[in-house]
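queue> pop job 88
queue> type: inverse folding (structure -> sequence)
queue> payload:
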């Protein structure tokens, strides 16, 4: 859908102008929507390496990728751009950068997709046509954007996906503005032959979709393998055919259908290959013994622990006459006689068992 909006906005703005307009709007939308999850103190304290990764990914995604992609959208068919976007470039770049496993089967499928792009673009015929030049620009843009997708793994984990989305959009808007100034673009103005309401409505819709697009890219490539995430982008060619036909009446050519079919088949085969090998690599070996938990035994002498001593009992005695002037010795004698008398007068005690000493 962003391809359709880029083609429509090209009637009123230059590629750089439409990119920084919708990206700047997307930045303010992200600040408002993601304000609950954005930690400004954490952003101000991140390391210089993290800032370099953010700026590098932003340059790849917006200053190079999105700007060139918007220019290519006005030069070639939407279906062709969507087929080029279906290339498994993430897999190919991942193998070149050694971030994913390299195998002969993967190299064959990636090479087959490149052949599909050549058939789609018609390189065997008039290679100097504007259609082929637009496809070439779209291919360069998708390479830059695929590198930006792989760059999700370069972050150190300090920032969450909401913060990365806001920073990417903000830095991207500033970078594209500087690019527009260097190119000598003037201030954006609405042409007389274009409806201002429809044009600004398209900018607003593109801003909302840009926020959703960047957030889902960061979210998916953070949780799913990069090769599998990249292969899921092959569905874009199906929507490209539908949107190109509905919005612009672009009927794909036979070379486009053949080249697109080769791209999709190679991407689906690579996706199936990754889906089969990933679980097999994750399973442990069959002969590996499973550890058996050992129950913890309590020591046998734990039950023989001495009981907690009872607190001492203090007994107080008072004389019947109320005289408190007796000595300590007299108090002790009175206490002993009182205890002995209470014991001997107890009816539960058997007098036959008493001895003279007791």
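queue> result:
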């Amino acid at each position: 859908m962003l391809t359709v909006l880029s083609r429509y906005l090209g009637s009123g703005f230059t590629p750089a102008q439409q990119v920084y307009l919708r990206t700047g709007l997307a930045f303010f939308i992200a600040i408002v929507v993601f304000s609950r999850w954005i930690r400004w103190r954490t952003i101000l304290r991140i390391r210089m390496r993290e800032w370099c990764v953010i700026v590098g990914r932003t340059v790849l995604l917006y200053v190079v990728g999105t700007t060139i992609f918007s220019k290519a959208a006005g030069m070639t068919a939407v279906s062709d751009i969507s087929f080029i976007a279906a290339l498994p470039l993430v897999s190919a770049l991942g193998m070149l950068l050694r971030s994913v496993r390299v195998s002969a089967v993967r190299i064959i499928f990636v090479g087959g997709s490149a052949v599909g792009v050549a058939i789609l673009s018609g390189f065997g015929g008039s290679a100097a046509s504007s259609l082929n030049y637009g496809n070439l620009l779209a291919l360069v843009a998708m390479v830059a954007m695929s590198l930006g997708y792989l760059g999700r793994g370069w972050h150190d984990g300090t920032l969450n996906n909401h913060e990365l989305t806001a920073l990417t959009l903000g830095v991207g808007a500033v970078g594209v503005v500087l690019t527009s100034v260097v190119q000598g673009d003037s201030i954006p103005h609405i042409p007389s032959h274009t409806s201002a309401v429809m044009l600004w409505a398209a900018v607003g819709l593109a801003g909302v979709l840009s926020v959703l697009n960047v957030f889902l890219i960061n979210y998916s490539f953070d949780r799913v393998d990069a090769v599998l995430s990249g292969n899921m982008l092959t569905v874009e060619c199906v929507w490209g055919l539908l949107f190109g036909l509905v919005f612009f009446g672009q009927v794909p050519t036979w070379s486009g259908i053949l080249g697109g079919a080769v791209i999709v088949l190679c991407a689906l085969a690579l996706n199936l290959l990754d889906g089969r090998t990933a679980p097999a690599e994750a399973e442990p070996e069959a002969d590996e013994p499973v550890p058996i938990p050992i129950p913890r035994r309590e020591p046998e002498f734990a039950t023989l622990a001495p009981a907690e001593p009872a607190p001492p009992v203090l007994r107080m005695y008072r004389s019947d006459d109320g005289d408190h002037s007796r000595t300590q010795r007299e108090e002790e004698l009175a206490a002993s006689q009182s205890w002995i008398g209470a014991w001997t007068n107890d009816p539960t005690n058997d007098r036959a068992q008493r001895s003279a000493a007791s």
